[in-house]
Write a structure and sequence with these properties.
Layout lengths: L3 E5 L2 H11 L2 E2 L6 E4 L3 E5 L4 H15 L6 E10 L7 E9 L5 E2 L11 E6 L12 E3 L2 H8 L8 E9 L10 H34 L5 H6 L4 H17 L16 H13 L9
Parallel strand pairs: 1-4, 1-5, 5-10, 6-8, 8-9
Antiparallel strand pairs: 2-3, 3-4, 5-9, 6-7, 6-10
Helix pairs in contact: 1-4, 2-3, 6-7
Length: about 270
């Protein structure tokens, strides 16, 4: 199952990530895409619409598990921070429409935080104390449709600002900026985010109990016991999930629990009746 989706605008932003996570290219993909068993990355191109389209494409490619972490990585200008600073976006404003997103951060990080203003063209005025980029709003809007909101984030590497010479911002410079940020980006943000996502992913993979609780009256404590014994059953039976229909002759939640427990302790007793 995919546990991390990465979206960048430029190939030079993607290359350090591809190298670090040892991703391999997806052949004949409509967008530049790399994958491993549990990580996927797409280069979407510049602009809000491109970021949204690339995010949607990657969601379709991976199956978009809700517990997957999504991170938009790229360069951005900032009015006061230094080139090379790694910054977590805590508020994003689409300049043209005024729409605002507030990523909910589920972890503590030493990285600085900043608002990000998504603009339609390269920023030169830097009228606010904020990051300026062209993709963040499109990414957040699209990724938020596929994943839990506290697992959707944008992290920017500061590349320029007011009065700074940007003539050297070529492919090699951008790649070096992102490569230099990788220890902080991965160690101080991506790895902690994945640690936060892991319990959510594990819970999402557990069997749905709604058919059981709809058929029999389970108290809160019995629902907890049901979850435990179903998990034990799955572990004891090679991943096979018990079918509620095979327990239709049970008259109560207590009988269901007792029979499930017997089956866990003696898998060959799966046909026994209540």
């Amino acid at each position: 199952m995919t546990r991390l989706c990465l979206v960048t605008a430029l190939p030079s932003e993607a290359r350090p990530l591809v190298d670090h996570f040892r991703l391999v290219p997806v052949v004949d993909a409509p967008l530049r895409t790399w994958r491993s068993d549990d990580i996927a990355l797409v280069v979407g191109g510049m602009g809000m619409a491109a970021a949204a389209a690339a995010t949607g494409y990657l969601a379709g490619l991976t199956g978009a598990p809700r517990a997957c972490a999504w991170v938009n990585v790229g360069i951005a200008g900032h009015s006061s921070l230094s080139r090379g600073d790694v910054v977590v976006v805590d508020r994003c404003v689409h300049q043209a429409s005024g729409r605002t997103w507030y990523p909910s951060l589920p972890l503590r990080t030493v990285l600085p935080r900043s608002a990000c203003i998504t603009v339609g063209a390269v920023e030169t005025a830097f009228s606010e104390d904020a990051l300026f980029d062209m993709e963040c709003a499109g990414f957040l809007d699209a990724a938020g449709r596929f994943a839990w909101l506290d697992l959707v984030h944008s992290v920017k590497v500061v590349s320029d600002g007011p009065g700074r010479d940007t003539s050297d911002l070529d492919r090699e410079t951008v790649m070096k900026l992102v490569a230099g940020a990788m220890p902080r980006l991965v160690g101080d943000f991506i790895e902690p985010l994945l640690a936060c996502a892991a319990p959510v992913a594990a819970d999402a993979m557990r069997p749905d109990l709604s058919a059981w609780t709809a058929r029999w009256h389970f108290t809160a404590s019995n629902t907890h016991r049901l979850r435990e014994v179903v998990d034990d059953y799955v572990a004891a039976n090679g991943g096979r999930v018990p079918a509620p229909a095979s327990f239709d002759d049970c008259r109560s939640a207590a009988e269901v629990l007792a029979r499930l427990r017997r089956q866990v302790n003696a898998p060959g007793a799966a046909t026994s009746r209540c």
